Amino acid sequence: MLDSLLTPFHYDYMLRAIFVSGLIGCVCGFLSCFITLKGWSLMGDALSHAVVPGVAIAYLLGLPFAAGAFATGLLAAAGMGFVKAKTPLREDAVIGVVFTAFLALGLLLISLKPSGVALQTILLGNILGISDFDIVQIIGVAVGALLVLGLKWRDLLLVSFDPHQARTLGLNVAGLHFVLLALLSATVVAALQAVGAVLVVAMLVTPGATAYLLTDRFGKMITLAMTIGAGTSLVGAYASYFFNGATGGCIVTLQTLLFLAVFYAAPKHGWRAQRAPQAGRPAHQAERPPRFLPNGGAPDATR
């Protein structure tokens, strides 16, 4: 029995897949805290689709796909910001227009030379066939993203929730906003290898959403989200060997199951806790616990 459970570790491609998946899951978990609290879930979805033309162009020109994907991701983010600033359109409409345009362009480029680009690889990922060069790229992106987030998470939190106060304190709001977009684009490119463009948004949202239901402190939320992201990615990649299924699908399914369990059983913000009477009061009169500080609207970033 033990020998069977250890079988995946006998194969080099599985060890690489498990390691890379865990690393990507850790970064996505950290970044998902900002995406969840800032309401950027649709932005993550947009960037995951906007990188498709960059991948197609990189393949056609014989360049590393990560470079093309990162370039079009930043271009899409800048385009959405420009259109939002110059028009009265709501942000969701701007995101919808831009990311569908980029996705359509990518599909068009792929259809012009279908033999040069593996569409399934872009959409679903190919973590089991990842090359040494791609692993080095992912490690570089992950280490860089974790370093920036670790040093700037307090500033990024303040800019996300109260840009006016951040500007008053002397923070470069526009610069930090661009840093967050750049980190999101780079992480999307890295996660593209593991789960593909279709499921990357789940890795960027679900860990943070799960952690959000478990704590009211942002520092603790980061720790929980990183643990959830890395743990589910490691276990999902490992389990994919026995299911003989898509690694990305296993990872995201596991994250979703964990979210549903927390959604039901979280001690303060779960569905069961919200239905229970509080301090002798009827359930319909029970107040939800405060999630925000009274002075700024942001979770407690001091702990």
Which structural class do you get from the secondary structure elements? mainly alpha
Distance between the termini: 44 Å
Strand content: under 5%
Could you name the CATH class? Mainly Alpha
The pLDDT mean sits at 81
The profile of the biggest β sheet is: none
Give me the CATH superfamily.
ABC transporter involved in vitamin B12 uptake, BtuC
Low-confidence stretches: 283-287, 292-297, 299-303
Kindly identify the CATH topology.
ABC transporter involved in vitamin B12 uptake, BtuC
| Computed Rg | 20 Å
Task: Report the total helices.
Answer: 13
Structure summary, number of beta strands: 0
Total tally of structural domains: 1
A few lines on this structure:
This protein has 303 residues and is an all-alpha fold.
Question: What do these coordinates show?
Answer:
The protein has 303 residues and is mostly helical. The chain has a single domain, classed as Orthogonal Bundle (ABC transporter involved in vitamin B12 uptake, BtuC). 75% of the residues lie in helices and 0% in strands. The chain has 13 helices and no strands. The chain has helices at residues 2-5, 12-38, 41-50, 52-61, 65-86, 91-112, 119-124, 132-161, 163-168, 173-212, 218-243, 247-265, 271-275. Helix 3 crosses helix 5 (65-86) and helix 5 runs antiparallel to helix 6 (91-112). The longest helix has 40 residues, at 173-212. The radius of gyration is 20 Å and the shape is globular. Mean pLDDT is 81; it is low at 283-287, 292-297 and 299-303. InterPro entries: ABC_BtuC-like (IPR037294), ABC_TroCD (IPR001626). One of its GO terms (cellular component) is ATP-binding cassette (ABC) transporter complex. It is found in: Cell membrane; Membrane. Belongs to the ABC-3 integral membrane protein family.
